Amino acid sequence: MRFTDRAAAICTSTELTPERDAGEPGQNVEGLARRGEPVRRRIGAATGGLVLIALLMGACTNGNGDLEGQRHRVAPTHRSHEVPALPSFMNPDGSHPQRRSWRELWRTTPGMSEDRCVDVEDRKDVRSGAFIAGNFASFIAGWDGTPEASKLYYIPAAPGAEQPLTVVADLLDDTAPQKVTFTFGATAWTTSGIPFYASGTVLPARGRWRLTLTAGENTGCFELAL
């Protein structure tokens, strides 16, 4: 086998990463955890081994020196599997968030569990930090600058009874920057008992907007284009 062929096989070998359950989130690294020829380890001279390692690292890197499996950054809208603890919050009707619905919502909604801005693109619901928000697809498609067509819902990871939501909307346009601040009070809740803020987030102009959310310890940030 030629060296380049052998290097390609090693770069895609399953033995380059620890054996893990494929069903667990974050366990597979693209480009590394693929099925391939097992690496047959042989003990050789120390000097020869170091040279071989250096050659293989060169074969497994791109022009920027990044490992092949790490050069692709995780998109900001990948599915986040970090599920916040089920809140003990009780809605005014006495209902509580249902455990199964709560876990499914936070486990499957695309976005980031980290506190950073997320581009909603053309998605319906998106997560950023401690918030899930939506329906962005409907909001963007139907936007006309009126309250009737400006409805978004914001679901906090840690809801509280006396915890208003503040949304700061910044128009990211150097030629005509704008800032609008909204404050929303009481929450509504779904049939599964999940509390959310129902809001009329009226954005007055087309352009690219950043929404920064704060409610108690909950924070999140979303960017969308109108």
Fold and architecture overview:
- It contains four helices and eleven strands; from the N terminus they run H-H-H-E-E-E-E-H-E-E-E-E-E-E-E.
- The chain has helices spanning 3-11, 46-59, 99-108, 136-142, and strands at residues 111-112, 117-119, 126-128, 131-134, 151-156, 165-171, 178-184, 188-189, 195-200, 208-215, 218-225.
- The strands form two sheets. Strands 1-3-4-5-9-8 form a six-stranded mixed sheet. A five-stranded mixed sheet has the order 2-11-10-6-7, with no helix packed on it.
- The model is unreliable at 1-75 (pLDDT under 50).
- The relative contact order is 0.13.
- The radius of gyration is 24 Å and the shape is globular.
- It has two domains: 3-59, no CATH class; 99-225, Immunoglobulin-like, CATH 2.60.40.
The number of helical elements comes to 4
**Can you identify the CATH class of the largest domain?**
Mainly Beta
**How far do the termini sit from each other?**
55 Å
Described by strand count, sense and barrel closure, the largest sheet is: 6 strands, mixed
What is the strand content? Answer: 15-25%
Mean of the pLDDT scores?
Answer: 74
Count of folded domains: 2
The CATH topology of the largest domain is Immunoglobulin-like
